[in-house]
UniProtKB/TrEMBL annotation:
Keywords: Membrane, Transmembrane, Transmembrane helix. It comes from the Bacteria. The keyword Lipoprotein does not apply. This is Benzoate/H(+) symporter BenE family transporter. The gene is benE. InterPro entries: Benzoate_Transporter (IPR004711). The keyword Membrane applies.
Length: 385
């Protein structure tokens, strides 16, 4: 009985992570394709290739290292491409994607990024993680004002299940959210239809201007806004992060999938935190099975990408974001607790948390990077007593 409960928890954590990762940014990928002159069918092709790549790499890395490593597409990278890729063709964009992926691969081979990460104290890493995630927690209650019945029911189910059946709390929240949205008529099923996705090859064109204007910024935001928090999540949960190996695998895989729409894949942070929580498994050494389950769901998502693109569009955005926030309540709490566990790091951790939680963006680099930087600067300026 206990084994079946653990299996269900791992599957639920993996499923919730994939649902949140897929639904929270699919609209961005859609916009990128349209900006580059593509079609809705091409969106499905991109999601097909990205899903397969994320699934295979998540399963492979998690099983090999026996730690919960979840790979995701670059959400901030997609947001960047909507503006930076304007004026370039699909072929030129693919060339820039391959150049960005090559830079990630070189970062892994040389090991310079891992050496930097090893020097960041866990308290600062936890503070940055808390800053990245706290807005998702706050959004739960922001959306409650818009949809009190839907979000209120999800929060109530979470609190009751945390007391009565904590192992199944997120599964029950997921079910409650879908049922409540369906009962209140907030899911439009008219556009649902099964359709298989197909690969679409785009020959790369290596345009120097595109590589500089698109490839380099994509590399920077992927490393600072995606891989950096992803490594921080692993450190915050006391897992040894195989930084260089992860960069090698994602960078090399990205080079191969770029001609099929794989613009950027990287270490997941927010969704990976779901697979590392106590809800996934009470034993931290077994939580890698949750990310393996997530990899399996990624592959299923990829196969049905054409159908899922329409299905996701029918769900209320408030449901998806609230589901993400509720799933991260435990992780937010533990991150803040660890960030403030040592009085010497308190001020630096607080600054890291506040900067990361802000909307600060300088030189197209997001707040996570600046949070780490200012936190480290605070530590350097305040001498240890």
């Amino acid at each position: 009985m206990q084994l079946s409960n653990q299996l269900l928890n791992r599957l639920t954590a993996g499923l919730v992570a994939v649902i949140i990762g897929f639904t929270s940014s699919i609209a961005l990928i859609y916009q990128v394709v349209i900006v580059l002159g593509g079609t809705a069918e091409l969106v499905a092709s991109w999601v097909l290739m990205l899903g397969l790549a994320m699934g295979v790499t998540s399963i492979g890395l998690s099983y090999y290292y026996k730690i919960p490593i979840l790979i995701a597409w670059s959400t901030t990278g997609a947001a960047l491409l909507i503006t930076s890729a304007q004026g370039y063709s699909l072929n030129q964009a693919v060339g820039a994607f391959m150049f960005s992926a090559l830079l990630v691969f070189i970062s892994g081979i040389t090991g310079w990024f891992e050496k930097i990460m090893q020097r960041i104290p866990s308290q600062i890493a936890c503070a940055m993680l808390g800053g990245v995630l706290v807005t998702f927690g706050i959004d739960v209650f922001n959306f409650m004002g818009e949809k009190p019945l839907l979000i209120g029911a999800m929060v109530l189910v979470y609190l009751v299940c945390k007391r009565l059946m904590p192992r199944f709390s997120m599964l029950m929240v997921l079910i409650a959210g879908f049922v409540m949205a369906g009962v209140t008529g907030q899911i439009d099923t008219s556009s649902w239809q099964w359709k298989m996705s197909e690969f679409a090859f785009i020959a790369p064109e290596f345009n120097l201007q595109a590589m500089i204007s698109v490839g380099i910024p994509l590399y920077i935001v992927t490393m600072t806004s995606q891989n950096l928090p992803g490594i921080a999540v692993l450190k915050a949960h006391n897992y040894p992060a195989p930084v260089s190996a992860a960069l090698n695998v994602t960078g090399f895989s990205n080079i191969l999938i770029a001609p099929f729409g794989g613009y950027a894949i990287n270490l997941a942070a927010i969704t990976a935190a779901i697979c590392m929580s106590e809800d996934a498994d009470s034993d931290p050494k077994k939580r890698y099975w949750a990310s393996i389950a997530g990899g399996g769901f990624y592959i299923l998502m990829a196969i049905g990408a054409a159908t899922l693109v329409g299905l996701v569009a029918s769900l209320p955005q408030a449901l998806i974001l609230a589901l993400a926030g509720i799933a991260l309540f435990t992780t937010i709490a533990s991150s803040l607790q660890q960030a403030l566990s040592d009085s010497y790091y308190t001020e630096a951790a607080m600054i890291t948390f506040l900067v990361t939680a802000s909307d600060l963006t300088l030189f197209s680099i997001g707040s996570a990077f600046w949070g780490i930087l200012l936190g480290a600067l605070t530590l350097w300026l305040i001498p240890r007593k």
